[in-house]
């Protein structure tokens, strides 16, 4: 926290103490502090007006750790990157010079986005068994396949070159935005465990955030590589 927000600094100290007294782990405290500071910076609201007294907010968080509240700006960024990845893969596999996008494909993207949120919030490791996690993943993939097969109504037709360009822009734009957010993130998320070096924790968190931002582009590159290999194999057997 900075000296420009003395009330936020005081509130932060009270919040950390209250969370520690409730046996909250350092990573949970750091994540909550980063989100609180970002919200106050973006909206201009006073921290106590937005979240209430620090002790009361800490009590609510520890009483209901499995929250359904999603950071929607991050989720929409993820959806943008996912849409770019799918658009790029659809364009590469399109027949001819035109990509016909169906309603089922668009619903499939929505299913993956909603499913990812549900998997993270409901079936995350540490809350439920590994089997439940994979069942949730399979259910999401099944829903994507089902809507893609059953809902084939065309929605729009795009030239392949336009679809590829739009996919790349969406994919790299989302990754760049998330990288920028990670680089300018507040240092509150370095609150981890006692005796750990804050500078080391900050570097580790930054590396993880940047790597996560570029996960979809990496997956797209792998997907394109696999499609290229598959196409060459099919051409060789033709």
Tell me the count of domains: 2
Distance between the termini: 64 Å
Q: Given the structure, what is the number of helices?
A: 10
Number of strands: 2
Q: Major sheet: size, sense and barrel closure?
A: 2 strands, antiparallel
The assembly state of the depicted protein chains is single chain
Q: List the strand order in the largest sheet.
A: 1-2
What form results from the Cα inertia axes? Answer: elongated
Mean pLDDT score? 77
Integer-rounded radius of gyration:
22 Å
Strand and helix order: HHHHHEHHEHHH
| Helix/sheet category | mainly alpha
Task: Report low-confidence residues grouped into runs of 5 or more.
Answer: 66-73, 123-127, 187-192
Helix content percent band: over 70%
Strand portion: under 5%
Please render the helix and strand layout as text.
Elements: H1 6-21, H2 26-43, H3 47-51, H4 54-63, H5 72-92, E1 98-102, H6 103-122, H7 130-150, E2 154-159, H8 160-183, H9 198-213, H10 215-237
Antiparallel strand pairs: 1-2
Helix pairs in contact: 1-2, 1-4, 5-6, 5-8, 5-10, 6-7, 8-9
């Amino acid at each position: 926290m900075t000296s420009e927000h003395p009330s936020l600094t005081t509130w932060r100290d009270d919040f950390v103490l209250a969370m520690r007294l409730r046996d909250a782990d350092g990573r949970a405290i750091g994540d909550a502090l980063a989100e609180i500071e970002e919200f106050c910076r973006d909206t201009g609201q006073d921290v106590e007006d937005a979240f209430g007294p620090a002790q009361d907010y800490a009590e609510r968080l520890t009483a209901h750790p499995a929250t359904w509240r999603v950071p929607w700006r991050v989720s929409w960024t993820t959806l943008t990157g996912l849409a770019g990845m799918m658009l790029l893969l659809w364009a590469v596999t399109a027949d001819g010079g035109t990509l016909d996008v169906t309603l089922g494909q668009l619903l499939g993207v929505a299913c993956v986005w909603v499913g990812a949120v549900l998997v993270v919030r409901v079936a995350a490791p540490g809350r439920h068994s590994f089997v439940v996690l994979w069942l949730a993943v399979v259910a999401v993939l099944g829903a994507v396949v089902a809507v893609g097969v059953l809902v084939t109504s065309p929605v729009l037709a795009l030239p392949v070159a336009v679809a590829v360009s739009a996919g790349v822009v969406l994919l790299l734009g989302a990754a760049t935005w998330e990288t920028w957010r990670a680089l300018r993130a507040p240092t509150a998320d370095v609150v981890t465990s006692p005796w750990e070096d804050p500078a080391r924790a900050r570097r580790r968190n930054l590396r993880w955030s940047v790597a996560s931002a570029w996960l979809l582009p990496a997956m797209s590159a792998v997907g394109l590589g696999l499609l290229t290999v598959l196409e060459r194999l099919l051409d060789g057997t033709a």
